[in-house]
Amino acid sequence: MRAAVPRRHEDEEESAFVSMTDMTVSFLFIVMILLAFFASQLHDPDKVPRADFDRVVRERDDLSKQNAALSQEVQAQAATIKQKDARIQELEDELKRLSARAIETYLTAVAEQRKQLLEQLQAKLKVDFPDLQVVISDEMDALRFKGDGLFKSNESAIRPEKRAMVENLATHLNAFLPCYTIGAHSSWSPECNQPGALIEAIQIEGHTDSTGDDNSNLTLSTNRANETFFTMIRKQPALVEHRNLRDQPVMSVAGYGKMRPVADNSTRDGQATNRRIDLRIIMYTPRSLEDLQRVREDLRKGIASGEGK
Q1: What angle, rounded to 10 degrees, do the helices at 160-176 and 214-235 form?
Q2: What is the CATH number for 269?
């Protein structure tokens, strides 16, 4: 049996050193691998791929161009809208001027038509009663009868010899009104009323001079107007059937006492002139072209459309 040879202490130390070296090398190798791995995972967050950068730049440039084009188009459209708004305002202003001119022309023609109607009534009454004191007012809107001719002093009953004159006035007025009013008897035509004038009201007004008590004068003037009205209605009941645009009877009554003198009350002649009955014709005044058109249409049909009610 071979005897074991004892190892020397130097050999043991060398063996231990070799093992430690191998382990250190292995450890360093592993560390290098780990460092390499972590290094591969690290990157600069501020850096992007070139392809993505170029794509974003292209999209930005395209949108900028589109935005510039749209801005130019918006500016062009805004300029066009501004021009059209200005033109619309010009047309609206012109329409207002034309409307005002048309209404003014109509009202002038209506005033002339009323004057002609009053002159025709006056002429017919003068034929029937040559000595009748009846004049047309300075405003060309009323027939004026001296009260002393129709009534006795401080009385409201019409003089018997003057009653026929009032009745004839009712007959002539009833013959004229169908061409100027709406209702069952309406019969408008351009021949009798070319501008299409519409009567709003025919007011029988009583007036006195300034002598006497104010309340008594108001009562007397109202009673005289009422007496004239009822005398006319008894002769021509159809007078209350002539209507205005609001489907109201055009005939009406008012008493003013001394409040509306037309002459100087300090003289006898002035007082005699102020003691009177006025037959005032009030015409309808349209407010717009549409209103004017409705007036003419209602006259043509003879029926109120209801818009003026």
Answers
A1: 60
A2: 3.30.1330.60
Closest to 180 in 3D by CA, of 253, 244, 119, 107 = 244
Q: Which helix (H) or strand (E) holds 238?
A: none
Residues 6 or more apart whose Cβ sits within 8 Å of residue 153: none
How is residue 87 written in tokens? 């033109």
Token code pair at residue 41: 């995972």
Task: Give the pLDDT of residue 11.
Answer: 57
Residue 68 included in any domain: no
Please check whether residue 249 lies inside any domain of the structure: yes
pLDDT at residue 1 is higher than 50: no
Residue 151 counted as domain residue: yes
Domain count, the chain: 1
Nearest by Cα to 179 from 194, 168, 201: 194
Q: Is the Cβ–Cβ distance between 282 and 245 less than 8 Å?
A: no
122 occurs within a structural domain:
yes
pLDDT of residue 156 exceeding 50, the answer is yes
Domain that includes residue 126, residue range: 115-301
